[in-house]
Amino acid sequence: MRVILLGPPGAGKGTQAKLISEKFNIPHISTGDIFRSNIKGKTPLGIKAKSYIDKGQLVPDEVTIGIVEDRLQKDDCKNGFLLDGFPRTVAQAEALDNIQEKSGKKIDVSLLITVPEQFILERMTGRRVCPSCGGSYHVKFNPPKVEGKCDICGAELIQRKDDTEDTVKKRLTVYNDQTSPLISYYKNNGILSEVDGTDAIDKVFGSISNILGAQE
Ligand code: ADP
Ligand code: ADP
Ligand code: ZN
């Protein structure tokens, strides 16, 4: 099964992606995680990406598309994958369709997690992430079992540099301008499904499981 997760920053894409990837046994591919691990390793890609990410801007398409194209060629993507945070522009969506076409495949579902803007700031400023395994927590809505420590790997949780109020506001503008046109793109392709992301995490996951379960 080939799945895309769509939705504004803070919709819960990363949180749901971890659960989906486990249940449906497909690799979770997060472009944000790929960029962050390159930033940590100070690679040329990381240095380039950082200058955009810290400002809340998108990393240019010509950089991002190549990374995803390489990743999708890996063996673990043969039977499906879950894309989290890609595509984020119409050009990226078109490139993804071309990549799929070349290999005679297609995306099965584009899953939109809807969360109105008034929820987002609190979600983002309370987010704490694991720099080691990418786990995502919230100080109020999804606290770790031991304060400040990742449940999965025990690493010290951090606050992302781009999760400050100012940068989140910029990222929301970028989402509305550049990413939200993908909703009609996938509606027109006939593969858009939608879930209400304001429910509790397990309830959202229940809705998603029903949609994806019907695909199998
Ligand atoms: P995204 O990947 O879409 O930016 P995340 O999965 O990282 O979003 O979630 C953003 C923040 O909101 C995190 O702190 C996460 O713990 C929290 N969160 C995720 N889903 C929910 C939910 N259904 N209700 C409340 N908080 C949530
Ligand atoms: P969130 O889901 O919380 O908005 P991500 O971890 O998906 O955050 O992305 C963090 C940042 O990485 C984005 O704000 C953007 O700068 C960059 N990024 C991630 N994915 C892409 C993409 N597909 N195209 C361009 N930039 C991206
Ligand atoms: Zn961890």
UniProtKB/TrEMBL annotation:
Keyword Transcription regulation: no
This protein's domain notes: Consists of three domains, a large central CORE domain and two small peripheral domains, NMPbind and LID, which undergo movements during catalysis. The LID domain closes over the site of phosphoryl transfer upon ATP binding. Assembling and dissambling the active center during each catalytic cycle provides an effective means to prevent ATP hydrolysis. Some bacteria have evolved a zinc-coordinating structure that stabilizes the LID domain.
Subunit structure: Monomer.
Region (LID): 126-163
InterPro entries (UniProt xref): Adenyl_kin_sub, Adenylat/UMP-CMP_kin, Adenylat_kinase_CS, Adenylate_kinase_lid-dom, P-loop_NTPase
Enzyme class label: transferase
Pathway recorded for this protein: Purine metabolism; AMP biosynthesis via salvage pathway; AMP from ADP: step 1/1
Residues that, per the record, bind AMP: T31, R36, Q57, L58, V59, G85, F86, P87, R88, Q92, R160, R171
The protein's name: Adenylate kinase
A GO MF term: kinase activity
Region (NMP): 30-59
Family: Belongs to the adenylate kinase family.
Signal peptide per UniProt: none
Source organism of this protein record: Clostridium oceanicum
